[in-house]
Structure formats: structure tokens, C-alpha cells
Description:
Chain A is mainly beta. Chain A is built from five helices and 36 strands. Among the domains of chain B are: 22-295, no CATH class; 297-353, no CATH class; 526-600, no CATH class. In chain B, helix 20 (404-417) runs antiparallel to helix 21 (420-430) and helix 20 packs across helix 24.
Amino acid sequence: MRNGVITYLFFLLVLASCQKQPGNKITSNEFPPIYPDYIDVIIPENIAPLNFLMRDSCKKVVATIKGANQTITVKGKTKIQIPIKKWKKLLSENEEQNLEVTVSALKNGTWATYRPFSWEVNKNKIDPFLSYRLIEPGYEVWNKIQVVERNIETFNERVLADNNLNEGSCMNCHIYGSQNANISMMHIRGEKGGTMLNKDGKLRKINTRNKDMIGNATYGNIHPSGRFAVFSTNVVIPEFHAYGSERLEVYDKASDLIVLDFDNNEVSTQPFLSDTTTLETFPVFSACGKYIYYCAAPYKPLPDSIRSLKYSIHRISFDPENNTPGTKADTIWDAAEHNGSVSHLKTSPDGKYLLYTVADYGTFPIWHREADLQLMNLQTGGIDKLKDVNAFCSDSYHSWSSNSNWFVFASKRDNGIYGKTYFAYIDSEGKAHKPFVLPQRDPAMYDYTLKSFNIPELSKGQTPFDAMDIEKLYSEMESENVK
Amino acid sequence: MNELNYQTQLSRLANLLFFVVLLVFWGFFYSNHLVQKEQMQLFLLSFDYLKEHLSYQGGFVIYLGEFFTQFFRFTWAAVLFTTFFIYQVSYASQKVLSRFFNSKIYLLAFVPAMGYNLLLLNIYFKLSGAIAVALSVWGVVFYLKQMAPVKRMISGFILIVLCYWMLGGTYISFALSIVLIELFIRFKKAGNLEDLPNSWMIISGYVLIGIVTPLFFHKFVLIDTLLSSFISSAYYQFSPMLPTPLLLIFLSLPAILLFHGFADGLVSFNNRKILQPVLGILLFFGFGFGLYHLADFEEEIEIQYENLVTQANWAKIINLAEQETPTGEKGKLALTLALGKTEQLSSKLFSFSPEINDLFIPFNIRGMAPLIANEPYFYLGLTNFSKMLCIETLESTPDGRSPVRMIKRYAENCIIDGQYDVAAKYLHALEQTLFYRKWANEAQKYIRDEEKINDHQVWGDIRNNRVKDDFYFNYDQIDLALIALLRSNPQNKMAYEYIMSWYLLQKDFDEFLNYLPLVKTMGYHELPLVFQEALVYIKTLFNEVPENLNQYKISNEVRLRLNKYAKAFQQGGSKKPDEMGKAFGKTYWYYVHFTELENE
């Protein structure tokens, strides 16, 4: 009797498991409800596995990734985590081809196979290292801040700076010169702070404020030669919105523009770049190093006139021989004409494009939902509003891959508060394609992390320092002063 | 009575007394401090959370500490667990001494436990530290149980590393204790354990591994300061620091071992019979003295108010304040909020000797934003400012951990504001807790269900009260925010009482009179007492009272009291604030004349 029951149960189990095979299924015309949204995206050949999870409550999920000669099948409960070795092989064998991804999920006892989607493997690689700041999206106070370097070909992460080691001081963006990890810098505030400059692994701490400046160096960019950096110096004021969907407004009470010569620790500027009539910010060098692009707006009483504070794009020449910014500014993008305000300028390494953020007003687009990226062709002057790239929430803080085929940016598109890092491909025609989010080992990571990914910057190599080096620099070395 | 019986009875008595003192102190005098520890953490019951804690020094015991602290929302559990772990420190210390020195009673064994208990009076010291100290002492007991020298040696090396990684800084206590134990064995001073082979080498090895282990992890594994790499963040919320009392606690067990190792043989049984009760009494009174002087009972009251606000127990807050007027900023804020929530600001505010900043805590970017700071904004309908202060609190905790109370409040604000994706993120975290899971699951049902939110008893009201236009937060002009609330919902009685209270506290009679006509639309049966007192006084300032002010009825009682006040004031009362305070301290007039504002 007992044996009979066991045999019966065994057959029931076999039958039940037969039903769970993807062979018995319904077919859906919908794309699978996966997160992150990796449906029909172009990916570089060297990207880490695009792990994802199912958003609906399925019991099991199977993904089949089909290339020209090879297929990978990955199973999971709700998550698809692709083995990295198989993934690398698949991508290298399918350069310039489409991978077809078919997802089946067991839900309410039935297997559903969703409409397949594609991953187009692009042979133009993206720079393999990405640095970003991990910070909780706070207001005026911060707690834990880390600047992290992620190898985007794998899931490995390295901490470049940790404010826990630097007396809790605030740390700003880590930026590279021409995507070169051997030249980079970041600001660390606080009593022992300064601008931490990395040149071939040799670290220096520079006090970037001289007696004539209104503040320390803030937003900056390194010259292609590595010798100079152009900075804005900003007196930053935060304000908190009362209205539900708004959050924070940050504006500059004053801002100027300077160029710093790292070899001689000398600051240069022009009177019109450091007077009180115009607010200058977010300067960058052109790819050739002969021009400086920056955002400029006429001074207005703030915060009362904040909604009419609109920044244009200006360009001046730069003479690297004499460390001299030009005396005449050209308007490249007129705020009045476009009825918007520009920030975060980034020139592409091939010199073709200028990528920037446009918001309705102001100079702090990360809390402006309407803030979108735009791409200007510097040769034709044509502007692409990047409809396939932008989403309804703030898209900003972008940077280029060294081959100018990819750019990375921070977007709050998921929930309006937490920034994540997205990559977008630009083809030879200059068309930007649908972006995809930085893949994570655990695709649920974005759901539970309380950190924002801030100021992503790509680089060709690994940065030659780590958090302990920065701690030593911060706590033990004296700052060099600038003239 | 022989020595053994005497020692056994003395030991039992001392242990019982210590346990009872701990229980009574925490249960009756300091429980709110413990209860708030639960609000200051977000303990997730997930494997990832455990894994994360096992990945750094002291993380295991922090995990254990948080695990037990999650039960602190129940006062009895908070008291029992704290007492238990403190008691464990003393019990394990006694075991070490009795095992090694073969005696039943060692009153000095209470010292580390008493010490850590005194540290816990400070809100910045953690329960995990008490557990760590207890476990490290039990580690010494385990070490002493290893009779075979080789086993003892192996366990010594393993336990030093294990104690370091699992318990953090108290490994110093463990390592020093076993080094001393081996030295005593080596020189036959105490213990019945066999000497280790090559004992000098092994003792040196213990010292070496004790120093090298943190250095190794600091260099190759951890991203932490050197001091933190030795101590960990298991003890003190400001982890880059090592407070001297904590260091003394780490050194206390080795010091006691050293003392007994040298002193035991020198004191006879008869002398000990006298000395032990004397020492016991000294310890008892010393501990009592420490509790009395180191405990911050004012802070305990402040925390009690903060905890009552969490429970939205407005009646109890007012009742408590009626017994003794709160003097701290949190207690005062809780009181005005309770009065506002029960529509009594307009009748009772000046019964509690208010000050100008009692309605809101001024925004300050230094130090931790109090848990309670966001509460008035939340209940008034200024959800964005409530969110801002929730995040400021989250971001300003000394140890960087997320207070569950703020996570919950932030999620509520997001639901009210329709920021459902952000709310879901925070609810997702709460769903992984033991005690907030049910609440979070229930809250999830509100996501994107506008009707359900609007029907919610608290959220619906707040949603209805929110501002409909935008402006920037400015503490000095908070009245403008309150006016915006009233503009959005003219029936927001709480906002109205806050506006009027704000102007009265500012002694801004023009604005008070400006908004007085709205009193008719707020559903009061009569002009509230505070308004009557203010109005009757303001009228005395006019040469000719405007006709429109005569429409408000002032009770005879108020008129009579004003006359008495005026008489007393004119008869020298203006120079006798104490006397006037006794007679009229609960009136608005007293506030006007005897509370000086900054701009006066």
C-alpha cells in the first residue's frame, strides 16, 4: 500500500515536472517584463553579462541567448545571471551580429514564452573602466561617500576614495583627462582637503584657491596635454522646494572661470570671465585643446529670478603656450533662442560633438525632471535632441568613451530620485541609440541599494591609486598653493 | 561556615543583586534610551545582509547586536536583553577567574560588566559591544577548558583571529588575557593547566598574531582607518575614535587577572572574609554613583517624548508635560505637535512656558538632525520638508546606519506625494525586517491606489492638506509655508493654529490680527483662550480700539485675570518675574513681558 502511494506520488511529480518544461507553453506577443530594460539594445563587445530579473511574480524563468553558432541557456527563479565565461565567448563570436534572446517564465502553472528581443553586439568597444561616486541622494548633509572604479567588462569594483577615511569630508567628481587613467583629479573638501591630482600614479594635493578667487575650483576639465585644467569657481546655494514633485534647487550666487597650470601652479583668467555681471560654469576644453566651451548666464537676483536664469553655451579660444584664455566669447547655443538652460558640457574625443544637458532653467539639472541630453554636431551646428536616449526624468552627468562611439550618463528615469549609469551607442551617422543600464552581478541590486550612481566617467585603463593612497594624501601631505 | 560555602553564598548574593540592579535601572529609569536604539537601525533578515556583515571586522557582532536590538521596540525585551548581555560579561569573567584561580567569588569580575553598562548610558555606545565583550570573555573560558597544551595553543591562535574578525576590538582583551594566563602557568603562579611546549615562542606568537592580524586586514582587505581596523565599529558609533573608557574595558579583564595572579596568595581566608564584603559594598556604591552621575536623565525624558511621537500618543505627551513641563527642544517640539494635533495650541500653548522655537526645530547642518525634526512638517502637510528632514536625519547618523523610523516616514511621505517608485524601494527594505514587514506589505497595497490613499485616516488628511504651490524652505519665514498650507486647504485647522502660535510667539500682533478673522471659519465654539488673552492685551495697546476687534467675545474670567495681571505688573511685578510667573506664568501676557526675543 505504502509503496503504491509512493509510486503514485512519483508519477504525479513526473507529470507535474513535464508540465513545467518550456515545451508546454503559451506564446506571448509581448516583450518579457524584465528589469533592467535590455530589450533591443546595442551593446559593446566587451560589456559584462546583461543580467536581468522578471518584474512579474513568476516561479521560474529560462532565457535562451542565441548567436550565430552558439546558444546559451540560463535558468533562474526570477533572475537570469549569465555565466561570464560563456558570455564573453558568445560576444566575441558574434561581433557585429544580433543575439536573439528568448525568455520563458513559469507563472500560475503555465510556461509563457515571450516575444524574443535582440542584443546587437557592436565591435566598437567601450572604455573598460568606469568611475562614479556612490552617494545617498541627500540634501545638504552627506554621510558615506565613495568614489568607485568599476571594470565594466566584469563586475569588479575598486574603491578609489572613501570619505570615511577622510574625516567624512565631501568628495566631488573624479574626472579623467582624455579618458586616460594616468591623469585624473577629484576634489576633497574639508580642513585637509584639496584637489587630488593623479599624474602617472604620482599624487599631488593642490589648494586651487588663490586670494583673487571667489572659491575653490569646482567643475572642471583637463586639457588634452594634461598640463592644464579649466575650472569654474562657484558659490553654491541650495534651496529646498515645498512642492511634492520638486526636490532641490541649487544655484550659483557667483561663479567665475579660471585655467590652472599644473606645472607651475598658476591660475589665469580674463576680466570678463571673473566679473560679477555673468555667471560662468561647466567649462571644458575642445578635443584639440585650442578652445574652451562653457556655460554662461547674465547675473540675476536669486532665488527670486531663478526661473529666468538660463545658461547659454559660449566658446573662447585658449593658448596653451601662454596659458591664456581668449578675450572674446562666441555664443554657440543661445539660451534665449532655445528657451532652455544648458549645463554639463562634454566634447567628444574625436572633436565632432558636444554633448550637454538642457533644463528649463538653472544650473543644477540633476533635480530637474525635464533635463535632457542634447548632442550638437560641432561641424554642422546641427542639434540632435536624442529622443531615443532621454527619458522623462533627469538625464545628465555624461562622459565619452575614448573612441567617441559610446557615451555614459546618469539618469533618474526609474524613480526620479536615484541616479543610475546608462550607456548609449552613437553610430557613424551620428545617431544615438537606446541606452542600457550598467549591468550588475545581481540584477536586483538597483532595487535595494540606497545609493545613487553619480558623475560616471569612462577611462581606457585602471586608475593607478586607491582609497588608502588618497587617505595618505589627504591626511599626511600639505597642499600646494596656486598663484 | 567553611570558605567554599561562604564564597558560594556571597557569589550568589552578588550576582543576584547585580542582575536586579541592572533590571531595575534599565526597566524603570532608562528604558527609553534602549527603545530608541531600535529606531536607529534597519536590521534586514536576509542572507545578503548577514553576508555583508561577515565581510568586515566586527561585522558579525554588529549583526548580532542589531538582531537583538530589533526586539527593543518592546520595552521589556530591551530591558531583558540588555541586562542579560551585561550580566553575561560579569558571569563569564567570574568563570574565567574561578576556573583559573579555583575560587568561587571574585568581585572584581563585575568591573568589566559594570564598566560597559556605564558606557551604554551614552547613546553612542552599542549593544553589540556588550555582546562582543561577553563573547570574548567566554572565549577565554573556552581557552581555559582546553586541558591539552597543543589543543590550547591551536585554539589560542584560532580564537585571536576569530575574535578579531567576529568581535572587533575586544580581541585585544582576549589576546592579552590568554597571554597573561600562559605567563602565569609558565611561572606556576596559578591555574592547574600544563605548560605549553616552547611556551615563550607561543606566547610571542600570540602577541605577534594579535598585532599582525589587523595590520594585514588593514593593508589588504579593509577600507578603513588604521585605528578602526583594530577596534571596528561594533562599540562606538563614531568608529574612527577609541574612547578611553572603552580601552579601559578592553584592558579590564587582563588587569583583573594580573591583580588576582599576584594578590590572591597574599590574603588569608579571614582577611578575605572582611575584604570581600567591603569590596562588594565599594563596588555597589561605586556602580550606583556611576549610574547616577553618568546617566543623562534629561535626555531620557527627551527620548521618551520622541518615542511617544512615534506612537502618535498625543494624550500621553500632554499628560506628561502637565506633570512636568519639558525643557529640551525635542520634548517641547513633541508637546507643541501634540497640542497642534489635538487642536489645543490655541488654548494651552502658553500653559507650558513656550519659547520661540518650540514649533519647529531650527534647521542646522551640524550634528544629527533629530528623529523628531520632520514630524510637525509631516502632520501639517509640508511633506517635502518632512522628506528633506528625514533624509537629513538618515544622512547625519554618526555610524551611517539608516534609522528604520526615518525609512518608514520617508516611504509614507512618498506614498502621500505619489512618488510610488521611491516608496516601493523603501517598502522593499522594510519588507525584509521582522517587525515592519506587515506594515510594509499593507503599505504596498496603497501604491498607485489613489482612492485608498485618500481614504487613509492619516495619509488622506495629509495629502489633502499639502501645499499646491511651490516655494523654498526658509525657517525664518516658516509662516509663509504655513500660510501656503492654509491657502491650499482653508480648513487646515492645525496649520491655522500653528500660524497663530508662530505670530504670538514672535509677538507679531499685526499678523495675529491679520489672520484672526479666519478663526470664525475654523469651527471653534468660542474664541480660544490664548487668542482671547492675546486680543485683550493687544486692545490695551490701542488709543482707540478698532471696531472690528469688538466682534470677538472675551470672557469675563480673562478680563478679570488681565486686570489682576495689570495691577500686579504696575505694582512692581515688572521687576519680579518669579513672582509674576507663579501667579500668571501660564498666560500670554507673562510671555509677552518676560520672554525676551533675540530682536528685542
